[in-house]
Specification:
7-stranded mixed β-sheet; 26 helices; 45% helix
Length: 699
């Protein structure tokens, strides 16, 4: 059947106009690119000529021209002894076809070279392949042009080549500079080299590899053993995630770096993604493969730019992770829009008004405050510009993501970072320290760099830290707390049930500190920073020998007895008396979404998770709901809602921030989790009445 297929294709071929062109039809068994590369290599060895990387002017058509096919542009006039641009017409082309389930190629080749003679040593011939490979290695090692010139001379002498007119073995400084410029040139050899590195030399550094093939995108997830150990030591970090496109590869691939802050306070990369196609699906796949290689990894928060593809990918893989937008990129994006035609080409004075308004909104510590401030600022902007087009843009593009960039969405510990500068600094180091300001073009060279010198650098810095040569300076809060403790301020604190009031050092007010939930009323803490008041109370509790962990465990038992939690197969949700919710994923039982856990504390929620037994979980949500209502006699939901409505209309009703947060959380929970039709529908096992009861008991 194959012979009939070949003959059938040959009959349909048109006779070439040039009699020097030879046609053939060959069946391809295996990968088409591998077949073409093998065919070209065989012709080059047999004919002692060389062809350039293929050009694809149309789909499934590959044209390999002679490497001397360029037209001369200078004083040489195409003279073969002076230039390699000899206008040679020799070529080989492949037209890949698939018909009747058989794949093949129509080959056209014209091998009569013009304008040069590869056998003539006086011509400007190609550098010998073995010497060319050595020069690439020397360039990668950072050797200078003079050093490479001497090394190539020694190599030619050792191999018995004495004719210094022969360019194949004796190079000029200009030849080496040209090689240095084109070292990372794009070619099919890059994909072959990457395949080899991934399967052989660097196989221990690869979490996932998907080669580029037809419509299948290129995906590579890289994590060295050092990075894997780093992530094991910090399984729930704040992740700084960013991508770079320029100067990394010649193909426009996206290069993602994921960093965390180590014990020395440095931003250290713990994984890399290289993607030929950026979509939510490809980024999600990378995150899934990374988590599969690191089962305990679950980020507490992720700092990123506002790329919806990445944002949706993180939400799908890590639904409980907090997402933060880089404040610098928020302002940069707004400013760029304002200077464009769509933004109205605003003047610097007009842009400053908008930017200052954004800064005022950013400072809001509650959602309610943000709604009030944003409404006021939008009104001021509309009046100043005499047009609502700017505020319409802000409401559409940024207010919907306010929780990701406004301070009220950053009340947990986020390493005091408002920007993605950790990732930006890494890219700066990679491009200008390791790549020395030169653009990297090949993926294989990038892999060798990441798994080589880059890993050595960060590993060495980590070793210096372990040796005590690099220390993290204590924060201002730690220094202030230590000074207060030394002055005996802690001795006067009345600590009861893990709570106390710490007097302010600058005003006449006092801040309520709750060490059980690790909270403080001061502004610094509400902005997601560790404050001196909490640290002072923690020091004093340690001095007095008070067991906070035992108190947190008792609090956990109280929550369990009042059933202020809900369970599913995947997670446990704890309802706090202040109206907030905390979620613990059963796959990562040391990670909780509460504020205390974000500061590295073993929170009450973790104690609840450890006390509860796996057999407490009912796999059927409907059965769970029936048992809950039958055994505990909970009132119907409609009855509770009516009670709340009547109470809100009575004189006894008083609006407080705690009550507002409680109702808001319950509202979001109901519409966010219980309205979706799913086999894993959540059950609401707590009532507002119980929350109120617990609140009264604490007071």
């Amino acid at each position: 059947m194959a012979t009939h297929w070949v003959n059938g294709v040959k009959k349909r071929l048109k006779k070439p106009h040039d009699s020097r062109v030879h046609q053939d039809v060959v069946i391809i068994r295996g990968d088409a690119k591998e077949f073409m590369e093998g065919y070209i290599n065989e012709v080059q060895e047999k004919e002692h000529c060389y062809f350039r990387p293929p050009v694809c002017p149309r789909q499934d058509y590959y044209y390999y021209g002679c490497d001397r096919g360029n037209h001369a542009a200078g004083k040489s006039n195409g003279e073969a002894t002076q230039t390699r641009a000899n206008s040679c017409k020799a070529y080989i082309s492949f037209k890949v076809i698939t018909d009747a389930g058989i794949s093949g190629a129509i080959i056209q080749k014209m091998l009569q070279h013009t304008g040069h003679d590869e056998a003539n040593s006086k011509e400007k011939n190609r550098i010998h392949p073995d010497l060319h490979s050595l020069i690439e290695i020397w360039l990668q090692q950072g050797c200078s042009t003079s050093e490479i010139l001497i090394k190539s001379y020694d190599w030619a002498q050792q191999n018995g080549h004495v004719d210094k007119k022969d360019r194949r073995f004796y190079l000029t400084p200009n030849d080496i500079r040209l090689l240095k410029k084109n070292l990372r040139g794009v070619g099919d050899s890059d994909s072959i080299s990457v395949d080899h590195l991934v399967s052989m030399e660097l196989r221990d550094n690869i979490c996932f590899y998907q080669p580029l093939h037809n419509e299948q995108p290129f995906i590579l997830v890289v994590q060295t053993p050092f990075q894997k150990q780093l992530l094991e030591e910090n399984p729930h970090p704040m992740v700084f995630m960013d991508a770079s496109y320029k100067g990394i590869t010649a193909y426009g691939y996206a290069f993602y770096a994921l960093l965390l802050i180590n014990k020395t306070g440095r931003g250290v990369p713990f994984a890399y993604f290289i993607l030929s196609k950026e979509t939510t699906a490809t980024v999600s796949l990378c995150l899934q493969k990374l988590q599969l290689s690191n089962p305990s990894f679950y980020p507490r928060s992720v700092m990123m730019d506002r790329d919806l593809r990445v944002l949706n990918a993180i939400k799908s893989v890590f639904p409980n992770a907090k997402l933060l937008l880089c404040w610098f990129h928020v302002l940069q994006a707004v400013n760029r829009w304002l200077v464009k035609t769509d933004g109205g080409h605003l003047t610097p004075e007009q842009r400053n008004v908008v930017i200052h308004a954004m800064a005022s909104m950013k400072a809001c510590l509650t959602e309610e405050e943000f709604l009030n401030v944003s409404a006021k600022k939008c009104s001021e902007i509309d009046t100043f510009l005499d047009s609502p087009h700017v505020t319409t843009y802000l409401k559409t593009n940024w207010f919907t993501y306010a929780e990701l960039w406004v301070n009220y969405g950053r009340t947990f510990y986020h390493c005091s970072s408002e920007t993605n500068n950790k990732a930006e600094r890494f890219f700066l180091t990679l491009k200008y320290q390791f790549l020395r300001g030169q653009a990297n073009r090949r993926v294989d060279q990038l892999l060798l760099l990441l798994c080589g010198d880059v890993e050595k650098y960060y590993s060495y810095m980590d070793g210096l830290s372990e040796a005590g040569r690099l220390t993290l300076p204590s924060s201002a809060a730690h220094q202030a707390a230590a000074l207060l403790f030394k002055n005996g301020v802690g001795k006067d604190l009345d600590i009861e049930a893990g709570q106390c009031s710490v007097p302010s050092q600058s005003t006449n007010t006092a801040y309520k500190v709750n060490l059980l939930h690790f909270t403080c009323e001061c502004t610094n803490f509400r902005m997601g920073n560790v404050c001196k008041h909490l640290l002072l109370v923690k020091m004093e509790v340690g001095r007095r020998g008070i067991d906070i962990e035992k108190m947190r465990n008792n609090k956990a038992l109280e929550i369990i007895s009042l059933r202020l939690y809900q369970q599913t197969e995947d997670e446990i949700t704890i309802f706090n008396s202040d109206g907030t919710m905390s979620i613990v994923n059963r796959k990562t039982p040391t990670l909780c979404t509460c504020i205390a856990n974000s500061f590295g504390e073993r929170c009450v929620c973790i104690h609840v998770t450890h006390v509860l037994k796996p057999q407490d979980i009912l796999t059927d949500p409907k059965e769970n709901a029936q048992v809950s209502e039958a055994s505990h006699g909970n009132p119907p939901i409609q009855s509770m809602l009516l009670d709340l409505l009547e109470w809100s209309k009575s004189e006894a009703f008083e609006h407080t921030p705690e009550l507002y947060n409680t109702i808001q959380r319950a509202h979001k929970l109901a519409f966010g989790k219980f309205t979706a039709v799913s086999r894993k529908r959540k059950i609401y096992m707590v009532t507002v009445k119980k929350l109120k009861k617990l609140d009264c008991r604490e007071q």
